[in-house]
Specification:
The protein has 107 residues and is mostly helical. The chain contains five helices and no strands. It has helices at residues 3-12, 17-40, 44-65, 75-90, 94-100. Helix 1 packs across helix 4 (75-90) and helix 2 (17-40) crosses helix 4.
Amino acid sequence: MGFRRFWPMYLRAHQRAGTRAMHYLATAVGISGAVAALATGIFWLFLLGIAMGYVIAVLSHWTIEGNQPLITVNAFWGAIADLRMCYLAFTGQLEAEAMRQGVMLET
């Protein structure tokens, strides 16, 4: 499955605001782990940050969204979509993009 087909599916799986907020936190944790690993040379910090980020994101699907995370569909596209969602949210473009994809997001 290509990203173009995956992206609308990803948006539908993240319709609730709380799920998206937890994904923003998960992305920040993952990026923080990568930065800490680069700054200190301690590689396991990178792995820890990524693992913690995934745990936060997956739990948000089970506890907030009430669905299954898309990590089993395509983990790589999921990571790319998460970064894209964060970027669009922080630049104020996420709702318009979701509407273009036929997805209504909870605000």
